[in-house]
Write a structure and sequence with these properties.
Elements: E1 2-4, E2 12-14, E3 17-19, E4 23-33, E5 38-43, E6 56-61, E7 64-76, E8 79-84, H1 90-94, E9 100-104, E10 115-117, H2 118-121, E11 125-128, E12 131-140, E13 147-151, E14 157-161, E15 167-171, E16 176-179, H3 181-187, E17 189-191
Parallel strand pairs: 1-10, 11-16
Antiparallel strand pairs: 2-3, 4-5, 4-9, 5-8, 6-7, 6-9, 7-8, 11-12, 12-13, 13-14, 14-17, 15-16
């Protein structure tokens, strides 16, 4: 079981059922680059090349989403460099610092089986044989196996690797991840 880095967003809770976000984050605006409105983007997706295939994108700023055209200038190991419509000066680009670039869920990449967006994992209730263990609050990407941070009802956190031997099932629509508590006890670490 593994999650895809990209398509980040905060999950919404609605009673016992979770509502999926309409917009998924695929990039974070790090800074203005140069004087002509170019932006340096940190990709929040496993495949930075996907930016090249986008004609438009949504800029998330102060909880609002504005659709705009996007043009990729270049992609390298340090980030994705883009131009957005109506962003032609350094001042305009600096106003977008710390914003997110998003796609609508319907335009998100298709995931292979047993793979989930981080946006859909965060907020899941984690349940074992003895009941609810806590809420998955963060997915930490290590470059190898992802690590899940679970916040327990007592406020303490538990970290565990996202291993098939630990995770029995994931029900995104139901808002629940089922784990094998015996396997979990062998790999989990309490966070101080």
């Amino acid at each position: 079981s593994r999650c895809r880095q990209g398509e980040l967003a905060d999950p919404l809770q609605c009673g016992h059922r979770r509502m999926k976000r309409e917009f998924l984050r695929i990039g974070y605006v790090l800074r203005a680059q140069g004087i002509k409105g170019e932006l340096k983007i940190e990709p929040l997706t496993d495949d930075a090349e996907r930016f090249r295939h986008l004609n438009s994108i949504y800029v998330e700023q102060n909880g609002q989403y504005e659709r705009t055209k996007i043009r990729v200038n270049r992609i390298d190991e340090s980030g994705v460099y883009v131009y957005l419509d109506n962003c032609y000066t350094r001042d305009a680009a600096e106003r977008l610092k710390d914003c997110y670039l998003c796609v609508m869920r319907g335009d998100a990449v298709e995931l292979p089986d047993n793979t989930w967006f981080i946006a859909d994992l965060e907020g899941l209730l984690v349940q074992g044989e003895s009941g609810t263990l806590g809420t998955l609050i963060e997915v930490i990407q290590t470059g190898g196996v992802d690590v899940y941070r679970i916040k327990r009802d007592d406020g303490n956190c538990l970290l565990f690797p996202a291993l098939q031997s630990v995770i029995r099932s994931v029900d995104i629509d139901g808002g629940v991840m089922h784990v094998d508590e015996k396997a979990l006890s062998e790999v989990a670490v309490d966070e101080d």
